[in-house]
Amino acid sequence: MAQKPSIPKGTRDFGPQEMSRRNYIFNTIREVYSLYGFQQIETPAMENLSTLMGKYGEEGDKLLFKILNSGDFLRGIGADDLGAGATGHLAALLCEKGLRYDLTVPFARYVVQHREELALPFRRYQIQPVWRADRPQKGRYREFYQCDADVVGSDSLLCEVELMQIIDEVFRRFGIRVCIKINNRKILSGIAEMIGEADKIVDITVAIDKLDKIGLDAVNEELREDGISEEAIQKLQPIINLSGTNEEKIQTMRQVLAGSEVGLKGIDEVEYVLKTLTASPQTPLRGEGLSAAKDSPLLGEGAGERLLLELDLTLARGLNYYTGSIFEVQALDVEIGSITGGGRYDNLTGIFGMPGLSGVGISFGADRIYDVLNQLDLYPEAVTTATQVLFINFGEKETSYSLPILAMLRSQGIRCEIYPDASKMKKQMQYANQKGIPFVAMTGETEMAEGKVMLKNMQTGEQQLLSPDEMILKLKSRG
After folding, report:
1. Measured between alpha carbons, how far is 260 from 256 in angstroms, rounded to an integer?
2. 3-class SS shares of the chain: helix, strand, coil, % to 5
3. Model pTM?
4. 214 CB contacts (<8 Å, ≥6 apart)?
5. Which residue, of 62, 179, 250, 460, is most buried by count of CB atoms within 10 Å of its CB?
6. 275-278, long-range: CB < 8 A, 24+ apart
């Protein structure tokens, strides 16, 4: 017996119902992006490794899927190369291309390559899959979609404010309660400076970023392994454990970072974003467990019941290219990793020959949002129902009568189909049940004589004799 085929670990198949749900996610995000003036682009699934390598830090580089060169990829490779034992060296000889790790670095490449065509600031969104050679686990996949929005060519913190509004609106539409965690890489740089380890900022941020996953003791051990002094680690502890409202945290950090110009700049930036979002100098900045201002005109209706804004000094976003504001979004009612993240990068395009061009962006993790919506059962009924009505096939004469009615329904946006074969009624009804079709239409001798259709509700069993126009009104009223 032939072995049943399989797919690589960390990847998934999506059937018709699953694709309906995924498209609901993509379309919702796409609609909100468009409301804020973002334009869609796409970039290739594979990029030159020279574009990707060195942009995500050492850990990120290890997670890049590399593609073997076409044809005889071993041509020119000597025995010394094969026996050297340096996999990185060998991969560089065998692979010139790789699958994209995220959408941000390819976007930076796109901006530099198409600079003359773009009106700055350029607001783009992109909804495409990315690949990471990670260890698959719950909520973590090797192939997954990102839904990015970036503004490049502006230093204004209003960009950060609008991205927070986008996050708020998207999750309002989904019905997901979330907490937006905010920090700033300048604050982290200031902390590294004040504990005497300014040159270890990358090691510190990479370690701190794992706090939720591995715990404080493991983070401290990693810091020691990275050469951070015990004195510096001890100075870091009260900062990592800092609690209170956002306003209290800001006041404390102003004192801690009083001797760091870059750290204080980060505090100013965070405070501006939070205060602008709460939109009133009388509204205190809220901390953990407290919602954003309920009457804020900058956030969607009911934001106070749904949205938390929290300054989290342990948030590090371990990617090397972030230089300013950083964000992460967590669902409050499901235990899963971050479902949205992002931040500001002041000079990402500089690595491609265009220095000084600032950008800021966010990325919705569509696959994790999919899992959250599934667990909370938050999909609208119309999303989970593909066909609204199935016409039973009784034979050629009945089919000829039904086809114009099907055309009428489709012209009104009603999703319908006719069973292709004049099979037994039981088989056709089983088909409707299996697909979850809510209504079945029957056109026998009596219905045709009266110019009507017998519409059966598959849930209640109720049957109604309706004209095509009455049928359209009923189906539309059901959504």
Report:
1. 9
2. 45, 20, 35
3. 0.82
4. 222
5. 250
6. 276/157, 276/158, 276/161, 277/161, 277/164, 277/165, 277/309, 278/309
Domains and CATH numbers, the chain: 16-44+101-376 (3.30.930.10), 385-477 (3.40.50.800)
Contact of 60 with 319, CB cutoff 8 Å: yes
What does the alpha-carbon distance between residue 323 and residue 266 come to, in Å, rounded to a whole number?
A: 10
Determine how β-strand 389-391 pairs with β-strand 439-442: parallel
The owner of tokens 């999303």 is 383
Reported in sequence order, the residue ranges of 346-387 that DSSP labels E, i.e. its strands, are: 359-365
| pLDDT given for residue 284 in this prediction | 38
Please tell me what DSSP assigns to residue 49: H
Specify which residues 440 forms β-bridges with.
390, 456
Residue whose C-alpha is closest to residue 342's, from 100, 180, 143, 154: 180
Residue 139, sorted as left (phi over 0), alpha (psi -120 to 50) or beta, turns out to be left
Confidence of residue 427 (pLDDT cuts 50, 70, 90): very high
pLDDT in tens, 108-145: 899 999 999 999 999 999 999 999 998 888 767 899 99
Alpha-carbon distance of 240 to 204, in angstroms, equals 12
Q: In this structure, what are the phi and psi dihedrals at residue 374, rounded to the nearest 5 degrees?
A: -65, -45
pLDDT at 372: 95
Sheet holding 95-99, edge to edge: 46-48, 95-99, 66-68
Cα dist. 378→302, 338, 407, 420 in Å? 18, 18, 32, 33
Integer Cα distance of 185 and 357 in angstroms: 17
The number of residues making up the chain comes to 479
286 DSSP 8-state letter: P
Alpha-helix residue ranges (DSSP H) falling in 293-338: 303-306
The residue-averaged pLDDT of 354-383 equals 90
**Cα-based angle 171, 172, 176 (whole degrees, multiple of 5):** 55
Residue among 307, 21, 326 at smallest CA distance from 176: 307
Percentage with pLDDT > 90 across the chain? 58
DSSP letters, 84-123, are S--HHHHHHHHEEEEE-S-SHHHHHHHHHHTGGGPPSSEE
Q: What is the pLDDT of residue 87?
A: 60
Here the tokens at position 286 are 């809220």
Quick: pLDDT tens for 192-248. Answer: 888 887 777 778 777 877 777 788 888 888 888 888 888 888 888 888 888 889 999
